[in-house]
Amino acid sequence: MSRNANVLIVDDDPTLRQTMEAIVRSAGMNSISAGTGEEALEAVGRSAVDVMLLDVQLPGVSGLQVLRQVRERHPDIGVIMVSVVKEIPVAVEAIKHGALDYVTKDFSPGELSARVSKSLEQLRAERELAWLRDEVAARGNKPMVVGRSSAMASVVAVADKVAPKPVTVLITGESGTGKEVLARYLHERSDRRSGPFVAVNLPAIPSELVESALFGHEKGSFTGATRQTYGKFELANAGTLFLDEIGELKPDVQAKLLRALQEREIERVGGARPIPVDLRVICATNRNLEKMVQSGRFREDLYWRLKVVPIELPPLRARREDIRDLAQHFLTRYAAAYGRPPQTLGDGAAAMLENHSWPGNIRELENLVERLVVVCDATQIDESMLPLDLSVSAGLAHEAEKESNFAAATAAFEKGYLRRVLAQCSWNRRKAAEQLGIGYSTLKTKLRLHGLTPATETDED
Protein backbone atom coordinates (compact mmCIF):
# COMPACT_ATOMS: atom_id res chain seq x y z
CA MET A 1 0.00 0.00 0.00
CA SER A 2 2.97 2.39 0.48
CA ARG A 3 4.02 4.75 -2.34
CA ASN A 4 7.11 4.28 -4.49
CA ALA A 5 10.25 5.87 -3.06
CA ASN A 6 11.58 9.11 -4.57
CA VAL A 7 15.33 9.13 -5.32
CA LEU A 8 17.14 12.39 -6.07
CA ILE A 9 20.18 11.86 -8.33
CA VAL A 10 22.76 14.65 -8.11
CA ASP A 11 25.67 14.53 -10.60
CA ASP A 12 27.14 16.98 -13.11
CA ASP A 13 27.64 14.18 -15.67
CA PRO A 14 24.34 13.89 -17.63
CA THR A 15 25.26 10.46 -19.01
CA LEU A 16 25.86 9.02 -15.54
CA ARG A 17 22.66 10.69 -14.30
CA GLN A 18 20.67 8.95 -17.02
CA THR A 19 22.29 5.61 -16.16
CA MET A 20 21.40 5.97 -12.47
CA GLU A 21 17.88 7.10 -13.37
CA ALA A 22 17.36 3.96 -15.45
CA ILE A 23 18.62 1.73 -12.62
CA VAL A 24 16.40 3.45 -10.06
CA ARG A 25 13.29 3.24 -12.23
CA SER A 26 13.90 -0.41 -13.10
CA ALA A 27 13.87 -1.07 -9.33
CA GLY A 28 10.38 0.43 -9.09
CA MET A 29 11.39 3.82 -7.70
CA ASN A 30 10.80 7.36 -8.92
CA SER A 31 13.79 9.50 -9.95
CA ILE A 32 14.47 13.23 -9.72
CA SER A 33 17.60 14.80 -11.24
CA ALA A 34 19.88 17.70 -10.41
CA GLY A 35 23.18 18.71 -12.04
CA THR A 36 24.55 20.99 -9.29
CA GLY A 37 24.51 21.31 -5.53
CA GLU A 38 22.32 24.39 -5.79
CA GLU A 39 19.75 22.51 -7.89
CA ALA A 40 19.84 19.64 -5.37
CA LEU A 41 19.05 21.95 -2.43
CA GLU A 42 16.19 23.51 -4.40
CA ALA A 43 14.83 20.03 -5.21
CA VAL A 44 14.73 18.85 -1.58
CA GLY A 45 13.01 22.09 -0.64
CA ARG A 46 10.11 21.57 -3.04
CA SER A 47 9.80 17.79 -3.45
CA ALA A 48 9.40 14.77 -1.20
CA VAL A 49 12.78 13.00 -1.39
CA ASP A 50 13.49 9.72 0.37
CA VAL A 51 17.07 8.98 -0.74
CA MET A 52 19.69 11.13 -2.45
CA LEU A 53 22.51 9.77 -4.62
CA LEU A 54 24.99 12.64 -4.20
CA ASP A 55 28.21 13.13 -6.18
CA VAL A 56 31.16 14.21 -4.04
CA GLN A 57 32.75 16.30 -6.82
CA LEU A 58 30.23 18.98 -7.88
CA PRO A 59 30.85 22.42 -9.42
CA GLY A 60 30.05 25.28 -7.05
CA VAL A 61 28.57 23.90 -3.85
CA SER A 62 30.37 20.62 -3.21
CA GLY A 63 28.75 17.30 -2.43
CA LEU A 64 29.91 17.39 1.20
CA GLN A 65 28.51 20.91 1.61
CA VAL A 66 25.17 19.71 0.22
CA LEU A 67 25.30 16.75 2.61
CA ARG A 68 25.80 19.02 5.63
CA GLN A 69 22.89 21.27 4.68
CA VAL A 70 20.56 18.38 3.91
CA ARG A 71 21.33 16.67 7.22
CA GLU A 72 20.76 19.97 9.00
CA ARG A 73 17.47 20.85 7.31
CA HIS A 74 16.07 17.48 6.22
CA PRO A 75 17.46 14.69 8.42
CA ASP A 76 14.71 12.36 7.23
CA ILE A 77 16.41 12.12 3.79
CA GLY A 78 18.92 9.30 3.42
CA VAL A 79 22.09 10.32 1.55
CA ILE A 80 24.39 7.97 -0.36
CA MET A 81 27.63 9.64 -1.46
CA VAL A 82 28.96 8.76 -4.93
CA SER A 83 32.61 9.20 -5.97
CA VAL A 84 34.92 8.28 -8.86
CA VAL A 85 37.38 6.58 -6.53
CA LYS A 86 37.16 5.18 -3.02
CA GLU A 87 38.84 7.90 -0.98
CA ILE A 88 38.91 6.75 2.63
CA PRO A 89 39.20 10.26 4.18
CA VAL A 90 36.27 11.50 2.08
CA ALA A 91 34.18 8.43 2.98
CA VAL A 92 34.92 8.92 6.68
CA GLU A 93 33.99 12.61 6.44
CA ALA A 94 30.75 11.74 4.66
CA ILE A 95 29.69 9.15 7.25
CA LYS A 96 30.67 11.56 10.03
CA HIS A 97 28.24 14.14 8.64
CA GLY A 98 25.37 11.69 8.35
CA ALA A 99 25.66 9.88 5.01
CA LEU A 100 24.12 6.40 5.14
CA ASP A 101 26.45 4.88 2.56
CA TYR A 102 29.32 5.53 0.13
CA VAL A 103 29.61 4.00 -3.34
CA THR A 104 32.08 4.38 -6.23
CA LYS A 105 30.99 5.12 -9.79
CA ASP A 106 32.09 1.72 -11.07
CA PHE A 107 28.96 0.25 -9.45
CA SER A 108 26.88 -2.45 -11.13
CA PRO A 109 23.10 -1.91 -11.55
CA GLY A 110 22.40 -4.58 -8.94
CA GLU A 111 24.80 -3.05 -6.43
CA LEU A 112 23.34 0.45 -6.77
CA SER A 113 19.70 -0.67 -6.44
CA ALA A 114 20.68 -2.82 -3.44
CA ARG A 115 22.41 0.13 -1.76
CA VAL A 116 19.34 2.33 -2.26
CA SER A 117 16.99 -0.38 -0.99
CA LYS A 118 19.16 -0.90 2.09
CA SER A 119 19.07 2.82 2.84
CA LEU A 120 15.27 2.88 2.48
CA GLU A 121 15.01 -0.02 4.91
CA GLN A 122 17.20 1.82 7.41
CA LEU A 123 15.04 4.93 7.17
CA ARG A 124 11.87 2.87 7.59
CA ALA A 125 13.35 1.19 10.65
CA GLU A 126 14.12 4.59 12.19
CA ARG A 127 10.50 5.68 11.69
CA GLU A 128 9.22 2.44 13.19
CA LEU A 129 11.49 2.87 16.19
CA ALA A 130 10.13 6.37 16.75
CA TRP A 131 6.58 4.95 16.59
CA LEU A 132 7.42 2.09 18.93
CA ARG A 133 8.71 4.44 21.61
CA ASP A 134 5.23 5.98 21.82
CA GLU A 135 3.28 2.79 21.19
CA VAL A 136 4.79 0.20 23.50
CA ALA A 137 3.89 2.03 26.70
CA ALA A 138 0.34 2.83 25.63
CA ARG A 139 -0.82 -0.16 23.69
CA GLY A 140 -1.13 -3.05 26.12
CA ASN A 141 -3.27 -6.06 25.39
CA LYS A 142 -6.76 -4.67 24.71
CA PRO A 143 -8.79 -7.01 22.54
CA MET A 144 -12.37 -6.04 21.88
CA VAL A 145 -14.89 -8.05 23.93
CA VAL A 146 -17.89 -8.37 21.62
CA GLY A 147 -20.25 -9.96 24.14
CA ARG A 148 -23.75 -11.21 23.45
CA SER A 149 -25.81 -8.04 22.91
CA SER A 150 -27.56 -7.27 19.65
CA ALA A 151 -26.27 -3.69 19.92
CA MET A 152 -22.64 -4.82 19.69
CA ALA A 153 -23.47 -7.49 17.10
CA SER A 154 -24.64 -4.67 14.80
CA VAL A 155 -21.45 -2.67 15.43
CA VAL A 156 -19.21 -5.65 14.66
CA ALA A 157 -21.18 -6.47 11.49
CA VAL A 158 -20.46 -2.99 10.09
CA ALA A 159 -16.85 -3.05 11.30
CA ASP A 160 -16.16 -6.39 9.61
CA LYS A 161 -17.50 -5.03 6.31
CA VAL A 162 -15.47 -1.82 6.25
CA ALA A 163 -12.25 -3.06 7.89
CA PRO A 164 -10.65 -4.38 4.64
CA LYS A 165 -11.50 -1.16 2.75
CA PRO A 166 -9.34 1.97 3.12
CA VAL A 167 -12.29 4.27 3.89
CA THR A 168 -12.30 6.89 6.63
CA VAL A 169 -14.38 5.85 9.65
CA LEU A 170 -15.98 8.15 12.23
CA ILE A 171 -16.67 6.42 15.57
CA THR A 172 -19.12 8.18 17.89
CA GLY A 173 -20.28 7.39 21.39
CA GLU A 174 -20.03 8.42 25.01
CA SER A 175 -16.67 8.59 26.79
CA GLY A 176 -15.42 5.22 27.92
CA THR A 177 -17.35 3.11 25.41
CA GLY A 178 -14.20 1.68 23.79
CA LYS A 179 -13.74 3.78 20.67
CA GLU A 180 -9.98 3.20 20.51
CA VAL A 181 -10.49 -0.54 21.00
CA LEU A 182 -12.87 -0.57 18.01
CA ALA A 183 -10.35 1.43 15.96
CA ARG A 184 -7.68 -1.21 16.70
CA TYR A 185 -10.18 -3.91 15.75
CA LEU A 186 -10.61 -2.24 12.34
CA HIS A 187 -6.84 -1.88 11.88
CA GLU A 188 -6.10 -5.50 12.76
CA ARG A 189 -8.60 -6.72 10.16
CA SER A 190 -7.39 -4.42 7.39
CA ASP A 191 -4.71 -4.89 4.74
CA ARG A 192 -2.59 -2.45 6.78
CA ARG A 193 -2.40 -4.70 9.83
CA SER A 194 1.38 -5.12 9.39
CA GLY A 195 1.81 -1.33 9.52
CA PRO A 196 1.73 0.86 12.63
CA PHE A 197 -1.40 1.83 14.56
CA VAL A 198 -0.83 5.33 15.92
CA ALA A 199 -3.37 6.66 18.44
CA VAL A 200 -3.57 10.39 19.23
CA ASN A 201 -5.57 11.69 22.20
CA LEU A 202 -6.11 15.24 20.95
CA PRO A 203 -7.39 16.82 24.22
CA ALA A 204 -4.20 15.65 25.97
CA ILE A 205 -2.02 17.80 23.67
CA PRO A 206 -1.66 21.53 24.40
CA SER A 207 -3.57 23.43 21.71
CA GLU A 208 -0.45 25.27 20.51
CA LEU A 209 1.36 21.96 19.91
CA VAL A 210 -1.39 20.00 18.13
CA GLU A 211 -0.25 20.95 14.62
CA SER A 212 3.33 19.94 15.38
CA ALA A 213 2.17 16.68 16.98
CA LEU A 214 0.15 15.74 13.90
CA PHE A 215 2.37 16.97 11.08
CA GLY A 216 5.82 17.25 12.67
CA HIS A 217 8.13 20.25 12.59
CA GLU A 218 11.45 21.35 11.18
CA LYS A 219 14.40 22.35 13.32
CA GLY A 220 14.15 26.00 14.36
CA SER A 221 10.50 26.36 13.28
CA PHE A 222 9.55 27.65 16.75
CA THR A 223 11.14 28.23 20.14
CA GLY A 224 12.26 24.91 21.52
CA ALA A 225 12.31 23.10 18.16
CA THR A 226 15.92 21.97 18.49
CA ARG A 227 15.61 19.12 15.99
CA GLN A 228 13.37 17.88 13.21
CA THR A 229 10.51 15.76 14.55
CA TYR A 230 8.18 13.36 12.76
CA GLY A 231 4.48 13.97 13.24
CA LYS A 232 1.85 11.30 13.83
CA PHE A 233 0.90 11.29 10.14
CA GLU A 234 4.41 10.24 9.13
CA LEU A 235 4.70 7.73 11.96
CA ALA A 236 1.44 6.11 10.81
CA ASN A 237 2.53 5.88 7.16
CA ALA A 238 1.40 2.56 5.61
CA GLY A 239 -0.75 1.97 8.69
CA THR A 240 -3.65 3.53 10.58
CA LEU A 241 -3.91 6.89 12.34
CA PHE A 242 -6.55 7.12 15.09
CA LEU A 243 -7.56 10.66 16.09
CA ASP A 244 -9.53 10.56 19.34
CA GLU A 245 -11.90 13.42 20.25
CA ILE A 246 -11.67 15.05 16.84
CA GLY A 247 -14.23 17.65 17.94
CA GLU A 248 -11.55 19.32 20.06
CA LEU A 249 -9.52 20.49 17.03
CA LYS A 250 -9.12 24.23 16.56
CA PRO A 251 -10.37 25.70 13.23
CA ASP A 252 -6.89 26.35 11.81
CA VAL A 253 -5.81 22.73 12.41
CA GLN A 254 -9.15 21.51 11.02
CA ALA A 255 -8.26 23.20 7.72
CA LYS A 256 -4.84 21.52 7.61
CA LEU A 257 -6.32 18.13 8.49
CA LEU A 258 -8.84 18.52 5.66
CA ARG A 259 -6.03 19.25 3.20
CA ALA A 260 -4.03 16.25 4.41
CA LEU A 261 -7.02 13.96 3.89
CA GLN A 262 -7.84 15.39 0.47
CA GLU A 263 -4.32 15.65 -0.97
CA ARG A 264 -2.78 12.69 0.89
CA GLU A 265 0.19 14.87 1.78
CA ILE A 266 1.31 17.06 4.68
CA GLU A 267 3.74 19.85 5.43
CA ARG A 268 5.72 20.00 8.65
CA VAL A 269 5.54 23.15 10.76
CA GLY A 270 8.23 25.42 9.36
CA GLY A 271 8.57 23.28 6.24
CA ALA A 272 7.87 24.17 2.63
CA ARG A 273 7.91 20.83 0.82
CA PRO A 274 4.92 18.48 0.64
CA ILE A 275 5.40 15.03 2.15
CA PRO A 276 3.18 12.30 0.66
CA VAL A 277 1.48 10.01 3.18
CA ASP A 278 -0.38 6.77 2.65
CA LEU A 279 -2.46 5.83 5.64
CA ARG A 280 -5.96 5.16 6.85
CA VAL A 281 -7.57 7.69 9.20
CA ILE A 282 -10.10 6.71 11.87
CA CYS A 283 -11.59 9.47 14.01
CA ALA A 284 -13.67 9.37 17.16
CA THR A 285 -15.69 11.83 19.22
CA ASN A 286 -18.15 11.96 22.09
CA ARG A 287 -19.51 15.28 20.86
CA ASN A 288 -22.31 16.03 18.40
CA LEU A 289 -20.32 17.17 15.36
CA GLU A 290 -23.48 17.97 13.39
CA LYS A 291 -24.51 20.55 16.00
CA MET A 292 -20.96 21.88 16.06
CA VAL A 293 -21.16 22.36 12.28
CA GLN A 294 -24.43 24.24 12.65
CA SER A 295 -22.93 26.52 15.30
CA GLY A 296 -19.81 27.14 13.18
CA ARG A 297 -17.39 25.39 15.55
CA PHE A 298 -16.54 22.56 13.15
CA ARG A 299 -15.93 22.74 9.40
CA GLU A 300 -18.75 21.24 7.39
CA ASP A 301 -16.43 20.05 4.59
CA LEU A 302 -14.22 18.27 7.14
CA TYR A 303 -17.27 16.73 8.80
CA TRP A 304 -18.40 15.11 5.56
CA ARG A 305 -14.82 14.07 4.72
CA LEU A 306 -14.62 12.23 8.07
CA LYS A 307 -18.12 10.77 8.01
CA VAL A 308 -17.62 8.32 5.16
CA VAL A 309 -18.61 5.38 7.37
CA PRO A 310 -20.11 6.36 10.75
CA ILE A 311 -20.20 3.77 13.55
CA GLU A 312 -21.93 4.58 16.84
CA LEU A 313 -20.84 2.63 19.90
CA PRO A 314 -23.65 1.99 22.41
CA PRO A 315 -23.22 2.96 26.07
CA LEU A 316 -22.70 0.10 28.51
CA ARG A 317 -26.22 0.49 29.94
CA ALA A 318 -27.55 -0.39 26.46
CA ARG A 319 -25.57 -3.64 26.34
CA ARG A 320 -26.13 -5.10 29.82
CA GLU A 321 -25.88 -8.65 28.44
CA ASP A 322 -22.17 -7.96 27.83
CA ILE A 323 -21.30 -6.73 31.33
CA ARG A 324 -20.53 -10.14 32.81
CA ASP A 325 -18.24 -11.07 29.89
CA LEU A 326 -16.46 -7.72 30.13
CA ALA A 327 -16.01 -7.98 33.90
CA GLN A 328 -14.61 -11.50 33.62
CA HIS A 329 -12.25 -10.36 30.87
CA PHE A 330 -10.90 -7.59 33.12
CA LEU A 331 -10.64 -9.98 36.08
CA THR A 332 -8.48 -12.30 34.00
CA ARG A 333 -6.32 -9.50 32.61
CA TYR A 334 -5.57 -7.78 35.91
CA ALA A 335 -5.06 -11.00 37.83
CA ALA A 336 -2.32 -11.84 35.34
CA ALA A 337 -0.93 -8.29 35.41
CA TYR A 338 -0.65 -8.19 39.21
CA GLY A 339 0.36 -11.80 39.73
CA ARG A 340 -2.87 -12.66 41.54
CA PRO A 341 -4.67 -16.03 41.53
CA PRO A 342 -7.43 -16.38 38.90
CA GLN A 343 -10.77 -14.92 40.04
CA THR A 344 -14.34 -15.42 38.87
CA LEU A 345 -17.48 -13.32 39.19
CA GLY A 346 -20.28 -14.64 41.39
CA ASP A 347 -23.90 -14.55 40.20
CA GLY A 348 -24.94 -12.00 42.85
CA ALA A 349 -22.11 -9.65 41.96
CA ALA A 350 -22.79 -10.09 38.25
CA ALA A 351 -26.46 -9.19 38.77
CA MET A 352 -25.51 -6.03 40.63
CA LEU A 353 -23.06 -5.00 37.93
CA GLU A 354 -25.71 -5.57 35.29
CA ASN A 355 -28.16 -3.30 37.14
CA HIS A 356 -25.72 -0.41 37.61
CA SER A 357 -26.18 2.57 35.26
CA TRP A 358 -22.43 2.89 34.44
CA PRO A 359 -22.16 6.61 33.64
CA GLY A 360 -18.44 6.04 32.96
CA ASN A 361 -19.19 3.08 30.69
CA ILE A 362 -16.55 0.38 30.10
CA ARG A 363 -13.78 2.53 31.56
CA GLU A 364 -15.68 2.74 34.86
CA LEU A 365 -16.25 -1.03 34.88
CA GLU A 366 -12.58 -1.69 34.13
CA ASN A 367 -11.43 0.60 36.94
CA LEU A 368 -13.77 -1.11 39.41
CA VAL A 369 -12.59 -4.60 38.45
CA GLU A 370 -8.94 -3.57 38.67
CA ARG A 371 -9.58 -2.32 42.23
CA LEU A 372 -11.35 -5.57 43.16
CA VAL A 373 -8.43 -7.65 41.89
CA VAL A 374 -6.01 -5.66 44.02
CA VAL A 375 -7.99 -5.64 47.29
CA CYS A 376 -9.94 -8.93 47.23
CA ASP A 377 -8.16 -12.17 48.11
CA ALA A 378 -11.14 -14.47 47.43
CA THR A 379 -11.18 -16.56 44.27
CA GLN A 380 -14.81 -15.53 43.65
CA ILE A 381 -16.05 -11.95 43.73
CA ASP A 382 -19.47 -11.81 45.42
CA GLU A 383 -21.85 -8.92 46.02
CA SER A 384 -20.56 -8.15 49.53
CA MET A 385 -17.19 -7.19 48.01
CA LEU A 386 -18.67 -4.52 45.74
CA PRO A 387 -18.61 -0.89 46.91
CA LEU A 388 -21.70 0.18 48.87
CA ASP A 389 -22.34 3.15 46.58
CA LEU A 390 -22.61 0.75 43.66
CA SER A 391 -25.05 -1.38 45.69
CA VAL A 392 -27.24 1.63 46.25
CA SER A 393 -27.18 2.77 42.61
CA ALA A 394 -27.67 -0.73 41.20
CA GLY A 395 -29.61 -3.24 43.25
CA LEU A 396 -31.64 -0.82 45.32
CA ALA A 397 -32.80 1.32 42.46
CA HIS A 398 -33.58 -1.80 40.44
CA GLU A 399 -35.81 -3.23 43.19
CA ALA A 400 -37.54 0.11 43.84
CA GLU A 401 -38.33 0.57 40.16
CA LYS A 402 -40.31 -2.68 40.15
CA GLU A 403 -42.85 -1.27 42.67
CA SER A 404 -45.86 0.78 41.59
CA ASN A 405 -46.28 3.19 44.53
CA PHE A 406 -44.08 5.25 46.82
CA ALA A 407 -44.54 3.17 49.98
CA ALA A 408 -43.74 -0.10 48.23
CA ALA A 409 -40.73 1.43 46.46
CA THR A 410 -39.40 2.82 49.74
CA ALA A 411 -39.82 -0.56 51.44
CA ALA A 412 -38.03 -2.32 48.57
CA PHE A 413 -35.18 0.18 48.78
CA GLU A 414 -34.86 -0.33 52.56
CA LYS A 415 -34.93 -4.11 52.25
CA GLY A 416 -32.21 -4.16 49.63
CA TYR A 417 -30.07 -1.70 51.56
CA LEU A 418 -30.31 -3.73 54.76
CA ARG A 419 -29.47 -6.96 52.97
CA ARG A 420 -26.33 -5.52 51.42
CA VAL A 421 -25.05 -3.93 54.64
CA LEU A 422 -25.62 -7.22 56.45
CA ALA A 423 -23.78 -9.11 53.71
CA GLN A 424 -20.81 -6.78 54.08
CA CYS A 425 -20.87 -7.38 57.88
CA SER A 426 -21.06 -11.19 57.38
CA TRP A 427 -24.60 -11.01 58.86
CA ASN A 428 -23.32 -9.81 62.23
CA ARG A 429 -26.41 -7.83 63.25
CA ARG A 430 -24.78 -5.83 66.02
CA LYS A 431 -22.00 -4.71 63.69
CA ALA A 432 -24.53 -3.94 60.96
CA ALA A 433 -26.66 -1.86 63.36
CA GLU A 434 -23.59 0.13 64.33
CA GLN A 435 -22.69 0.73 60.70
CA LEU A 436 -26.28 1.74 59.90
CA GLY A 437 -26.42 4.09 62.89
CA ILE A 438 -29.57 2.51 64.35
CA GLY A 439 -30.31 0.54 67.47
CA TYR A 440 -29.90 -3.22 67.57
CA SER A 441 -33.59 -3.78 68.47
CA THR A 442 -34.65 -1.46 65.65
CA LEU A 443 -32.61 -3.49 63.20
CA LYS A 444 -34.15 -6.78 64.40
CA THR A 445 -37.65 -5.30 63.98
CA LYS A 446 -36.87 -4.22 60.43
CA LEU A 447 -35.39 -7.62 59.57
CA ARG A 448 -38.56 -9.36 60.78
CA LEU A 449 -40.69 -6.87 58.82
CA HIS A 450 -38.79 -7.57 55.61
CA GLY A 451 -38.34 -11.30 56.21
CA LEU A 452 -34.57 -11.07 56.16
CA THR A 453 -33.21 -14.09 57.98
CA PRO A 454 -29.86 -15.63 57.07
CA ALA A 455 -29.09 -19.34 57.29
CA THR A 456 -26.70 -18.57 60.16
CA GLU A 457 -27.04 -15.45 62.28
CA THR A 458 -24.15 -13.98 64.23
CA ASP A 459 -24.57 -11.25 66.77
CA GLU A 460 -21.13 -11.30 68.31
CA ASP A 461 -19.37 -7.99 68.74
Quick take:
49% of the residues lie in helices and 12% in strands. With 461 residues, it is α/β, with parallel strands linked by helices. The chain folds into three domains: 6-122, Response regulator (Rossmann fold, 3-Layer(aba) Sandwich), CATH 3.40.50.2300; 150-314, 3-Layer(aba) Sandwich (Rossmann fold); 318-450, Helicase, Ruva Protein, domain 3 (Orthogonal Bundle), CATH 1.10.8.
Question: Which CATH architecture of the largest domain is right?
Answer: 3-Layer(aba) Sandwich
Helix fraction bin:
40-55%
Give the spatial strand order of the biggest sheet: 2-1-3-4-5
Number of helices in the DSSP assignment: 19
Give the SSE layout.
Blueprint: E1 6-10, H1 14-26, E2 30-34, H2 37-46, E3 51-55, H3 63-73, E4 78-83, H4 88-96, E5 101-104, H5 109-139, H6 150-162, E6 169-172, H7 179-188, E7 197-201, H8 210-215, H9 232-235, E8 240-244, H10 251-263, E9 265-266, E10 275-276, E11 280-285, H11 289-294, H12 300-306, E12 309-312, H13 323-337, E13 344-345, H14 347-355, H15 361-375, E14 380-381, H16 388-401, H17 406-424, H18 429-436, H19 440-450
Helix pairs in contact: 2-3, 13-15, 14-16, 16-17, 17-18, 18-19
